[in-house]
Amino acid sequence: MSKPVVTDKWAGNFECGTCRRKRLVGSEFSKKALDKHRKTNSILKCKRCVAEVEQKERDAAAKRAEAKSSSSHTTAAGAGGGGGDGTNAPTIVSCASCNKSLPSSSFNRSQVSKGEGKARCRACVEKALAEEEKVSSQSKVDRIAKARENVRAAEGSGNLLEIVKAEAELSALEAEH
Description:
- The protein is mainly α.
- The protein contains 5 helices and 2 strands.
- A two-stranded antiparallel sheet has the order 1-2.
- Strand 1 (92-94) and strand 2 (101-103) form a beta hairpin.
- Helix 4 runs antiparallel to helix 5.
- The longest helix has 36 residues, at 122-157.
- It is elongated, with a radius of gyration of 25 Å.
- The two termini are 34 Å apart.
C-alpha cells in the first residue's frame, strides 16, 4: 500500500509574502523558513527578497559609515588630532580575508564583534556574497546540463522507464531554474 500524498510539501505550493510571487519551488526559500512555515503557517519570504533587504541594509550601513568617517575626519582636524581621549580615533581591525589592517568603520558591527582573526571587511563580504551567488547559479546550470546528458543516454538505450525518469528530472530542474 502506498503512502498518502502530502500536498503542503509540493514544489508549487509556496508563495512569497513580500513580492507576492506564487507557485514557487521550495528551493526559493531557506530550509529554516520552510520548516517554520510548516509548523506555524507563518508568511514566507523568498531568498530573492531576503537578498534585496540584506543588500539595502549593507548599502545603508556603508553610507552611515562613510558619513561617520567623514564627519570624524573633520572634527578630528578641527580638534587638533582627536582630542587625546581616543574617542574619535577609529579602532584598527585586521580583515581575515584580505589581511589588511583597516579602521573599524570598514567593517559591519557583526563582523567586528567576531573578534580578531575572524572579522571580514565590507568589501570582502560583498565579494564573497557575489561569488557564492555565481557558484550557486553555475551549479544549477551544470545540473541541468548533466540532466540533458542523462536524457540523451536514456533515449539511446531505448528503455522507456529510463527516458521518462530522465525527462522528469530535467523538467524539475528547469522548473527550479
